[in-house]
Amino acid sequence: SFFKSTDEKSIFHSLFFGYRSEMDTELTNAYATAGVIHILSVSGLHVGIVYLFLMFITKLLQRKFLLQLIRVLIIILAIWFYGLIAGFSPPVVRSCCMFTLLGITQILQRELFPYNSLFLSAFIILLFDPFQLYDIGFQLSYSAMLGIFTFYRPITKAMNAQGYLSKKIIELIAVSLAAQLGTLPLTLYYFNSFPSYFLLSNLIIVPFASIIMYSGIVFLSLTPFPVLAEYSAQFLAQLIEWLNKMVMLIEQLPYASLKNIYLNRTETVILVLIILSLAYLINYRNLRALPLLLILIIIFQISSIVKIFRGYTANHIIFSQINKTPLITYIHQNQAYCIMCDSSKYLDRNISNIMKDYYVNKINFHQLAIPHAGYPKNKHIIKIANHEFLIYPQKTRTEKNEELLMISTPKYRVMMVNSERKKTAIRSKHGYNLINLD
User: Fold this and answer.
1) Which CA distances in Å does 201 have to 50, 173, 271?
2) From start to end of 283-431, where are the E strands?
3) What's the CA angle centered on 93, arms 88 and 99, to 5 degrees?
4) HSE (side-chain half, CA atoms, 13 Å) at 139
5) Which is nearest to 148 in space by CA: 112, 173, 121?
6) In what order do the strands lie in the sheet with 412-417?
7) Pick from 412, 414, 411, 392: which is nearest to 403 by CA?
8) Over the stretch 249-280, which tens digit does the pLDDT of each residue have?
9) What distance in Å separates the CA atoms of residue 78 and residue 158, rounded to the nearest whole number?
C-alpha cells in the first residue's frame, strides 16, 4: 500500500470512491460537524473535477467535428466508468446524467437548461428504482442542486464582486449558501443539527479537497510506475493530513454545531414552503409573495409554540422500537422519563422520533439490567412521576389480573399498575405506539 496511515488511506478511498467503511467514527463526526461531510461521498463535485480533468487532457480533439464527437464520447464513457467504480449512488448517477447531457449539448451546440437536465436525471434514476425517492442521499442531492440553481445567481448579483479573486470567493460563498438553503429542511428533519461554520468550511476545505482530487488523479495515473507513484503518494498523504487537521480545528471551535433541533413533518413542510416563497420573491421580485412569506413564518412559529404546549400538557406513555431496540417513554410537563429495555445503540434515533412531536427540555433515563441465568425472578416496580411500571423477565408467569396495559419486548414484559384512570387503546403514531392516560 502507498499510504502508511489508516486515516489517510480511508480519506483517499472516501474522496475518490465513496468507500467510508474504513473511516474512524471520530473523524467522520468531525467532518459532519464542520459541515463538509459531503466531500466524502462521491457527488457532483467529484464527477465535475474528473470531467474538467478529462476536458483538459483531450483539448486537442476539439478542432474538428469528428474529433470533438470522439472527445465527448471518451469523456462520457470515462465518467460513467468512474460512476461504476464509485457504486452508482444517487448523487453519482445524477452527476453522470447531467454531465452526459452537458457533453451532448456541446456537440449539438445547444444551451443546457439546468432544471430540465436535473429532472431528467431524476426521472432516469426513478425509472429503474422508484424507491430511491425515499433515500436520504437522493433527497439531499437533488434538493442541494435545486437550491444552487434557484439561489446561486441572485446571491452573486447581490454581492457584486470586482476582481478575479473576489469573484471566485463570492461564487464559492454563493454555492455554499444556495446548497445550504436547498437542503436546510431535510438536514434539520433527518439529522437534528446544523453546522454553524459551513461557510468557513466550504471556503477553506472544499478548494483544498479539489487540489487533493487533482493530485489523486495524477497519483492514479502514475500507479504503473512504482517510483513516481510513491513520491506522488507521499505528497498526496501530506495534503490529506493537512485536510484532516483543518477539519478537526473547525470541529473544535465553540458552537461548531447547533444540535437538538427537532422538526416534525408539518414544520418541515412549512419550512420548505418558506424557502420556495423566498425563492419566488428573489427571482421574480414580486412583492405579492411577501405577505405569503410572512404568514408562513408566523405559522411556523405557532407550530413550535403548539409543540411546547403539547409537551407540557401531555400525559402519554410511548412504546417505541427501532431495530428491535425497545424504549418506554413517559412524557409530561416537557420532561421525558425513559426506560431502556435493551442496549442504547439506537437510543438517539428512538428519542429524536419522539421529540419531533413533543418539546422536551429534560430527559431522565433508567437502564434495565439484561436478564441472565442468575437473574431474580421476582417482579420489581419503577416509579416515574405519578405512575408505576411493573417490569419482569419474559419467562416469568403473570396473573390474570395483570394483563392491563402490557407490552412485550425481546427480554421483558412491562405493565402499568396503580392507575385507576381508563386507558385508551394503543395506537400507532409516527412509528411508535402511544397510550393516552388522560
Assistant:
1) 22, 10, 25
2) 316-322, 325-332, 335-340, 362-367, 380-384, 387-393, 406-408, 412-417, 427-429
3) 135
4) 13
5) 173
6) 380-384, 387-393, 412-417, 406-408
7) 414
8) 998 888 888 888 888 889 999 999 999 999 88
9) 38
Rounded distance between C-alpha atoms, residue 247 and residue 236, angstroms: 17
Kindly state the helix (H) or strand (E) to which residue 354 belongs, with its residue range.
helix 347-355
Cβ–Cβ < 8 Å for 437, 423: yes
329 close to 320: Cβ distance less than 8 angstroms: yes
Q: What are the grid coordinates assigned to 95, written together? A: 452527476
Residue (of 72, 36, 432) closest to 204 by Cα position: 36
Instruction: Give the residue from 420, 384, 383, 394 showing the smallest Cα distance to 405.
Output: 420
pTM: 0.77
Residue with cell 473576489: 166
Q: Which residues of 226-259 are buried (b: 16+ CB within 10 A; e: fewer)?
A: eeebeebbeebbebbeebbebbeebbeeeebbee
Q: What is the DSSP string of 190-255?
A: HHSEEETTHHHHHHHHHHHHHHHHHHHHHHHHTTTSHHHHHHHHHHHHHHHHHHHHHHHHHHTSTT
Angle between helices 136-159 and 90-108 (to 10 degrees): 50
Measured CA to CA, the distance from residue 50 to residue 56 in angstroms comes to 10
Whose cell is 408562513? That residue is: 296
Q: Which amino acid is at 323?
A: N
Ranges of H-type helices in 18-135: 25-34, 44-57, 65-85, 90-108, 114-128
Residue 198 reports pLDDT greater than 80: yes
